[in-house]
Amino acid sequence: MSDKDIEQAIQAKGKTAPRVTPEHIGSVISSEHYFTAQDGVNGAYGTPRDAPASLSCLTFCVLTLKNGFSVTGESACASPENFDAEIGRQIARENAIQKIWPLEGYLLKQKLSEQ
């Protein structure tokens, strides 16, 4: 069940208490960046380097939030023949987004406890 499916189920049951929503999660992201481990190795040395082929199949997503905090997600492909850069970016992004939920949940709970 996706985050949006869960939100629809919550709305269908008429739940209206404060909560973190998929829209809220999207609204706190200020930038996103993608690279492979091979890109990272090349960037670290300033020139292309020989490295294990598997580094080209490991994708990272860095999401920077509006408050300046960053979260990361990753996606690894076991078989290089199945590697698809776009799918790798989508999976890495979703993994990064999943790390935002508990952070925003904590912030909401803190705000509610201060009221």
TrEMBL record:
Q: Name one Pfam family in it.
A: Phage_gp49_66
Which InterPro entries does UniProt cross-reference here?
A: Phage_gp49_66
Q: In its UniProt entry, what is this protein called? A: Phage family protein
